[in-house]
């Protein structure tokens, strides 16, 4: 995924499904350099991870 799309998803009120390594995640933020994003699993767990945005996939 591109940095521009990550920022669009963050500012959207729609429930846009995104996966990281095949797992559904919420995007919390994107780094200033646009290379990484902070994400957490959809569901009760609040564990956050910093991942490369190129490994995020938007699901249709």
TrEMBL record:
InterPro entries: SASP_SspH
GO cellular component: endospore-forming forespore
Keywords carried by this UniProt record: Sporulation
Source organism, top-level taxon: Bacteria
This protein's record includes keyword Metal-binding: no
Induction per the UniProt record: Expressed only in the forespore compartment of sporulating cells.
GO biological process terms on file: asexual sporulation; sporulation resulting in formation of a cellular spore
Database matches in Pfam families: SspH
Localisation: Spore core
Chief location of this protein within or outside the cell: other
Family assignment from sequence similarity: Belongs to the SspH family.
Name of the protein in its database record: Small, acid-soluble spore protein H
